[in-house]
């Protein structure tokens, strides 16, 4: 053994990073600002369009926790989303509860469903895991179609309550504010997981890169995977919970629609999957484009837009919009 | 009359010369802000086969109204967005129509599945709403400003299959059993409920009663199962893609049912009529119109004559017997109500629609408290003597004869149904 010692590595200054509490606070401030701006516009359609876009922010962020951080591609986003929507229908009908408790129930149902999926697919990876999640969607849709209490294949009507909570003028405005808060919370949760020192962020990254190597290195892959599927499932169901009140009508084909599954994957891919900001950017860009297309050209253009944008990004920016900026910075 | 001086007479003549053409001009060219009429329409997706001709008819009506001098002297303008045959798109479309486009009047898109999700938005804004092919939509909402052009009445769950069951019971020998097959959708479930209730009360034994999911692509097992149950009569409720699948399966399996049909939506679209050809022979189908001499109202034939060249140009449903007369009626009801009220006040329009008997291209139309037809006018027709796939045979009387109701009857029931075999 040589006596020579390795020169000490120069100590790099730690990059300045916003703490968790500061980020949560920033999200809360941003949410308040968005609510104030939308109130300033004051149009029901602005509320509707914003709610539409923000539900995708929640959905894409939720998908990214499992798909982006842990590398487990979930094709069943629509199943979790619809589970949230139908929880609102069922709980609202059975107990007569308002939206907020229904969202809490949706989180529980989605979390349980996520945990169950995680447990059932313990030994499945890659394409097999993706196909299993796709099956979940089919199984859940079949259940809902045959469950007449929530409307079966006819669909269910959910009339908005006449009383609007203070200080909102319309139910559309209230619903939009709720979804703004949900989106801000989803982003804050994603960022907390991503930067977490508890090891979840790094552990999930290890899981994504090489699960067996991570396992050998002592990363508790099973526990992390179950935590990720549970949180992701709960958040996706939360995204779907306001859906019945947004349209006042929900039916299986729409709730389990291909658009939700495709968008949940396409939005993080377009924005960039490595960070909490990617799904946010992807969702805002893609959902706004889709909403604009629905009311200008034709709603049939929706999935076409997703397809074209995806092809462009796969060719021009494989790491999404964020990847483009990071490349420039290097 | 006081004496008129020569100068005064001259002035009057000049004034008349200016005002008369001005009045005439006002009648021929409407002026001012257009009256905007908004709605969603299924221009793509599974319902587009009927949504497109409906949208075209709305435009045809608007052009004619504008040529006649507009509505309240103002031009009318149709604002339509494609709902992609998906109910999920509908609330957003109506919110945009009312809040951003600021349309003055709203009308519905084509089918029940599209009309139902529009209702909450329309109700929140207290708009009068004339719908097209909704079946029992208002039974849940009980909205007093809803009006349906569909002639199925306010209780389709009980009355819809009446014609079909009556035809079955009149057969010789009298049938003893029935099979009920339907697509698992709102409209067809209501139709099947009606068939079930009426069959039971008529003493028919229900030997098969199943709904199939919208994802079904192979219909042979369904037809086989129905054959195995050996029913005398088969009542089927289906949408266009399923209708084609079911009839082709029936043809392949060489079925032989004494009476086969029901609300099988599909042959109503010209393209499907031509595709199926002789497979349609002896099929009994629910409909709203057929070109038979017994079912003519002033204006129907003339509307179809005006529609067909436009349809040929736009490449949509060529014959236009099913949706166009109803879609035109939808706009006529709106037009006559606006003219009667003299304004666009929604409450007054709704009140006028409840009180008025409208003179339309499908005959006089009035509405009950739920906005439905007080007396249903569901007709059951049978395709007879279809040969090959030519379009002209469907234009002449006797190809789609009316069997029910009695006052429009134009032919006798032929049996059995053998799918062109």
Explain this structure.
The complex is a heterodimer of chains A (330) and B (421). Chain A has 330 residues and is mainly α. Chain A has 15 helices and two strands. A two-stranded antiparallel ribbon of chain A has the order 1-2. Helix content of chain A is 72%, strand content 1%. In chain A, helix 2 (44-69) packs antiparallel against helix 9 (221-240) and helix 2 (44-69) packs across helix 12. The two termini of chain A are 39 Å apart. Chain B is globular, with a radius of gyration of 24 Å. Chain B has helices at residues 6-28, 48-67, 90-99, 112-124, 138-141, 156-159, 162-169, 186-201, 220-229, 240-252, 270-276, 300-314, 323-341, 346-355; strands at 35-41, 76-82, 105-107, 129-131, 146-148, 177-183, 205-212, 233-237, 259-262, 284-287, 358-360, 363-365, 379-383, 400-404. Chain B is built from 14 helices and 14 strands. Chain B has a seven-stranded mixed β-sheet, sandwiched between helices. Chain B starts with 5 loop residues before the first helix and ends in a 17-residue tail after the last strand. Classes of the chains: A mainly alpha (330), B alpha/beta (421).
Question: Main attributes?
Answer:
heterodimer; A: 330 residues; mainly alpha; two-stranded antiparallel ribbon; 15 helices; globular; B: 421 residues; alpha/beta; seven-stranded mixed beta sheet; 41% helix
Q: What is the arithmetic mean of pLDDT of chain A?
A: 85
Summarize model confidence as the mean pLDDT of chain B. 90
Q: How many β-strand stretches of chain B? A: 14
Please mark out the parts of chain A with pLDDT under 50 across 5 or more consecutive residues, or reply none. Answer: none
Question: Terminal Cα separation of chain B, in Å?
Answer: 84 Å
* Helical run tally of chain B: 14
Radius of gyration of chain A, Cα only, in angstroms?
21 Å
The side-by-side strand order for the widest beta sheet of chain A comes to: 1-2
Helical proportion of chain A, percent range: over 70%
What is the beta-strand fraction of chain B? 15-25%
DSSP strand content of chain A: under 5%
Strand order of the largest sheet of chain B: 7-6-8-9-10-13-14
Helix content, binned percent of chain B: 40-55%
Order of helices and strands of chain B: HEHEHEHEHEHHEHEHEHEHEHHHEEEE
Low-pLDDT stretches of chain B: 13-26
Biggest interface? A-B, 31 and 36 residues
């Amino acid at each position: 053994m040589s006596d020579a010692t390795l020169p000490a590595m120069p100590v790099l200054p730690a990059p300045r990073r916003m703490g968790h509490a500061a980020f949560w606070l920033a999200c809360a401030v941003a949410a308040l600002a968005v609510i104030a701006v939308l109130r300033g516009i004051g149009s029901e359609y602005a509320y509707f369009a914003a709610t539409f876009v923000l539900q995708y922010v929640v959905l894409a962020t939720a998908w990214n926790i499992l798909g982006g951080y842990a590398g487990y591609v979930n094709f069943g986003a629509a199943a979790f989303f619809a589970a949230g929507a139908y929880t609102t229908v069922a709980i609202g009908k059975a107990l007569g509860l308002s939206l907020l408790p229904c969202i809490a129930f949706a989180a529980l149902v989605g979390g349980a469903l996520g945990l169950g999926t995680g447990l059932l697919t313990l030994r499945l990876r890659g394409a097999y895991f993706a196909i299993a999640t796709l099956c979940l969607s089919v199984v859940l849709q079949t259940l809902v179609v045959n469950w007449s209490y929530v409307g079966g294949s006819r669909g269910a009507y959910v009339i908005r309550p006449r009383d609007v909570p203070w200080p909102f003028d319309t139910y559309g405005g209230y619903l939009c504010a709720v979804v703004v808060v949900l989106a801000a919370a989803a982003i804050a949760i994603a960022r907390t997981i991503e930067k977490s020192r508890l090891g979840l962020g790094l552990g999930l990254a290890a899981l994504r890169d090489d699960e067996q190597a991570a396992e050998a290195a002592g990363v508790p892959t099973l526990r992390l995977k179950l935590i990720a599927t549970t949180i992701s499932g709960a958040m996706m169901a939360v995204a779907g919970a306001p859906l019945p009140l947004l349209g006042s009508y929900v039916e299986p084909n729409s709730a389990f629609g291909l658009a939700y599954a495709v968008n949940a994957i396409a939005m993080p891919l377009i924005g960039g999957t490595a960070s909490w900001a990617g799904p946010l950017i992807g969702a805002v860009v893609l959902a706004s484009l889709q909403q604009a297309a629905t009311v200008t050209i034709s709603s049939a253009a929706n999935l076409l837009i997703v397809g074209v944008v995806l092809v462009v990004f796969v060719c021009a920016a494989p790491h999404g919009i964020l990847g483009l900026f990071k490349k420039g910075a290097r | 009359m006081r004496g008129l001086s020569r100068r005064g007479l001259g002035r009057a003549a000049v004034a008349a010369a200016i005002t008369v053409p001005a009045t005439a001009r006002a009648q021929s060219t409407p002026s001012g802000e257009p009256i905007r009429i908004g709605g969603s329409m299924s221009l793509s997706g599974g319902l587009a086969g009927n949504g497109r001709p409906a949208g075209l008819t709305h435009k045809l009506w608007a052009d004619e109204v504008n040529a006649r001098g507009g509505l309240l002297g103002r031009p009318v303008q149709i604002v339509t967005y494609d709902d992609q045959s998906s109910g999920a798109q509908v609330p957003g479309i109506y919110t945009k129509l009312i809040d951003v486009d600021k349309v003055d009047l709203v009308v519905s898109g084509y089918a029940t599945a599209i009309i139902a999700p529009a209702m909450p938005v329309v109700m929140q804004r207290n708009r009068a709403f004339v719908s097209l092919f909704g079946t029992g939509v208002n039974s849940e909402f009980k909205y007093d400003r809803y009006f349906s052009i569909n002639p199925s009445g306010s209780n389709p769950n009980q009355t819809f299959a009446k014609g079909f069951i009556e035809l079955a019971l009149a057969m010789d020998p009298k049938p003893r059993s029935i099979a009920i097959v339907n697509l698992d959708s709102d409209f067809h479930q209501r139709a099947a409920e009606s068939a079930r209730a009426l069959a039971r009360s008529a003493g028919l034994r229900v030997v098969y009663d199943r709904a199939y999911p919208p994802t079904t692509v192979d219909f042979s097992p369904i037809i086989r199962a129905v054959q195995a149950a050996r029913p005398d009569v088969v009542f089927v409720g289906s949408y266009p893609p399923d209708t084609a699948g079911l009839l082709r399966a029936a043809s392949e399996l060489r079925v032989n049912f004494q009476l086969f049909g029901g609300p099988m939506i599909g042959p109503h679209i010209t393209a499907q009529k031509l595709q199926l050809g002789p497979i349609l022979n002896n099929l009994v189908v629910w409909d709203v119109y057929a070109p038979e001499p017994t079912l003519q109202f002033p204006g129907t034939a003339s509307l179809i004559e005006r529609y067909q060249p436009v349809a040929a140009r736009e490449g949509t449903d060529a014959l236009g017997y099913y949706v166009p007369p109803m879609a035109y009626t939808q706009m006529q009801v709106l037009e006559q109500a606006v003219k009667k009220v003299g304004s666009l006040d929604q409450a007054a329009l709704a009140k006028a629609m409840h009180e008025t008997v409208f003179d339309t291209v499908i005959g006089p139309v009035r509405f009950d408290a739920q906005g439905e037809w007080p007396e249903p006018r569901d007709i059951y027709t049978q395709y007879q003597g279809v040969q090959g796939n030519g379009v002209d045979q469907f234009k002449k009387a006797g190809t789609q004869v009316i069997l029910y109701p009695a006052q429009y009857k134009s032919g006798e029931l032929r049996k059995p149904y053998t799918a062109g075999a």
